[in-house]
Amino acid sequence: xxxxxxxxxxxxxxxxxxxxxxxxxxxxxxxxxxxxxxxxxxxxxxxxxxxxxxxxxxxxxxxxxxxxxxxxxxxxxxxxxxxxxxxxxxxxxxxxxxxxxxxxxxxxxxxxxxxxxxxxxxxxxxxxxxxxxxxxxxxxxxxxxxxxxxxxxxxxxxxxxxxxxxxxxxxxxxxxxxxxxxxxxxxxxxxxxxxxxxxxxxxxxxxxxxx
Length: 211
What we know:
The chain is mainly α. Helix content is about 30%, strand content about 0%. The chain is built from six helices and no strands. The longest helix has 14 residues, at about 130-140. The radius of gyration is 23 Å and the shape is globular. The chain starts with about 40 loop residues before the first helix and ends with a helix.
């Protein structure tokens, strides 16, 4: 029997040779290894570079973990660069041993946060996207950094505008008009995660009036 002829030797081509497409650029290294390649990576690093968000002791950010109400207040106080006071009265359910005790008390004293009923804040509870946005909006209004009376008709661009609670519509409209909120949906009732909270904070910073 005749043996098969040897396979023709194929030349190895390098990317880009003979008109081939160049390889995609490697993602830039991230300050947090678990956010590399995420759509929110740039925003997370933008906020981290300004000391507004921080990772965990193991160096991770845990972008998909839910954000708690207390942690978001921590972000707000850093965003506004508030002088943190000690010894202020606080909500009944914010224990003195909680690491954000003074930040919550400072924000409360300044009228930036209202709590659930004036007495409780539920600092360790999750927060929905719309409540996170409302909290930031109220803080900015209180500080004179945001106007009121935004045209709520702008919300019609969102496919899930029907799900926005009435109390959240002014905040959603304001941040839509200022370009902080974009896209075609808001998922207002979805629990906010750390990545999207950081992206929201970064967008507020980029559009915030200079102070």
